[in-house]
Amino acid sequence: MQIDEFFGVGNDINPARLPPEQETSIERWRDAIGRGQIAFLPRVTNGRLYWYGFAPTLREKKELLTLLDAWIGPTFSDLPRSRGRLYPQDAFDSALALTDVPPLRFEVLPRGSAPSRDEVRQTLLVLSKLVWQRPRSEFDAPRTTVEILDDLGHAIGARDGRIALECLRELETSADLDHSNLAFLRLRVYAALGDTTAIFADQDLEHVLQLRRPIGITRLLQTAVYERYLASADVSGDGAALLEAAQQIPPQFRELATSGATSTRPAVVTEFMLRTLRGGSPATLGRLADEAKTLSKALADSLRLLHAPATKPTSETVQLETVATATITTEDELHRFIAEGEFAAAVMTGLAEPPTPVVAALLLSCIRELEDPGLAVEVAAFVDACGLREEAGDDVVVHADLEWLDRFINPQRNLGWLGWFDALEANDLKDAALDLSVTSEWHPLDHATISDRLASMDEEALARLGDHGGAFMAAHSTVFAAADGAELCERVLAGFAVSERSSIGVRVQTVALLEYLSASAPGAALLSSALEWSEMIVEAATSAVTASWTVDVLQAATTTPQALALSAKSRLYFRALDVLRPVRSSLSLADIEGLRLVGEELATALPDDFEVQNSDADPGAAYRHLKDAVVVLYSLTESAITRAAQILRRLMPGIDVRTTSEHDGSQQLAALSANADVFVMVAASAKHAATDFIKEHRGSRPIIQVNSRGSSAILRELAEG
Predict the structure, then answer these.
(1) Are 157 and 474 in contact (CB under 8 A)?
(2) Element (H, E) at 567
(3) Cα(145)–Cα(167) distance, rounded to whole angstroms?
(4) Cα–Cα distances in Å, from 516 out to 444, 476, 478, 625, 638?
(5) What is the pTM for the complete model shown?
(6) Secondary-structure class of domain 622-719 per CATH
(7) Which tens digits make up the pLDDT trace of 57-74?
(8) What residues does each domain of the chain span?
(9) According to the model, what pLDDT value does residue 138 have?
(10) How far apart are CA 163 and CA 73, in angstroms?
């Protein structure tokens, strides 16, 4: 329905027949709706007066419901009962429900009361003017690039694709990043989320392929090429099949070879095959085979068979090569290495020579390709020794390389994670606030080191971790998700609590940490401590906009055996109810059912003021389309799918909903994938191999992919069908 159709069929009000002041107010409200502002429109049908509240976004719709709850409330409306829901059996409301952000609806009570009618209208006039004139809230205020990047790190760490993409969109509209760096960042995010399809579909991929890009970007593109074109043939161990698969790589991706040392199987296989396609020298292919040997002797042997050994030279050939070698200069040798893509060999050869501006310029171009911190320092010393900075003149290429070198050897860039912890403890925010472009090449820390550093941090340092820990969590999420990660999760929750930060990144990371912790069989004392910190986080971050998140936190925190830390669970439950009470009108029926479920597990009843009294609404209406379906929920994190299944069974008694968290392919997972009517996969908690296995056995049947954490995200996707 268009706003122009609001005063048509199904609405007995004709604005032209109203008193002038009422017609004017309606026109102002209609104009406000057109400008994307909060506004109200009246409707009369069957002698009853209804008001509809319009908001431009779902977030503002939730906020509007809270405002109506406070300004109109039970005195003059049915809001406590209806909670602003549209009536699906009403054709007028059904048309409104199809809009991007359906409006809220409430009936004016008592029916037929002129004073009530006038009071509500005047209240809505005042409320709308205040909303239009108020300054932007802190929630709406533009955030700094550092804040957005930190939340992006948390979203990646929690593998929440929805929040990560929201952060990317925010950066694209408000951050001080240029077009190329935004493209690099998008690709890093897609790679971190394991979304190879998004990498190949990115709008700027062709542009990136033509740029002089960071080696980390080239590496992630190599991995994407490996997964799409080479992985299956590589796993088969058939060298001929691997060579045939490599022939299918499009020409634009065949220039992705680097000269940096390879440390992963996708990198070494892709690098080797790209060099082979381009007629790489025997020395280069031999070097790559040697690097492969550190990963797998069988892989190295297989790669060596793909390139023929050099032909044994004749005495005449040796004589000619000896004469030629005698005339080769250092510059000639460097150019040969560069032409072959052997930048490391070029740098080592050049550094052994007396410093000259010509050689220094060549080494600069090579080290920019390699991005090796140790060699970069040596090249910088070589550059300074030969006076290249003074000799460069108007050479824009050399000046660009010098600027890059100065940035690359910046101490902040090469801190490493241990140096980053030192910066946190020293309150050096310049070195503590980092982004993915800086940290992506840092070697992750192990469990023992992280545990020692977190345990040694005082409360102030923990607060700084809560403020600036996004990139760290993105790099170490697997350590926290491991079976022995409970104590680490508790420490980071403590950091969030004492920092009192309530950003979207902190919220999604909180749910992830509680899911990890619950799955790792924590002891009572550790769990109690984590739940106490969670109380503080919930208190700081709950609002009308985040009410469903608070329910997710509560559900994730209480999935361990009932008797474990029962007192702490009960305290968290009642604290959550306290902070939700002022914004309870923002809760969905599924949220309320989730609260009731947790309360029953803790042997307590949901307070009466949270119950929907005498409601005509059907709590399970959004899920009726699942009545006769077999629904399968898949996630490696059991807590969210367990909670979602429990709530579905309560909303839809008799529904056939099954859960599975198998790590590897099995007959059971294959059968569920093939036969389920509705298959839901939580992408935030699924391994790449399992995802491929499910898709293979699912065939052409659809998969509902949930890109966020928490049971509410699963229920939301199912409700949306």
Answers:
(1) yes
(2) helix 566-580
(3) 10
(4) 19, 13, 10, 32, 10
(5) 0.75
(6) alpha beta
(7) 877 887 888 888 878 877
(8) 3-133, 143-214, 215-308, 322-370+372-408, 416-610, 622-719
(9) 43
(10) 33
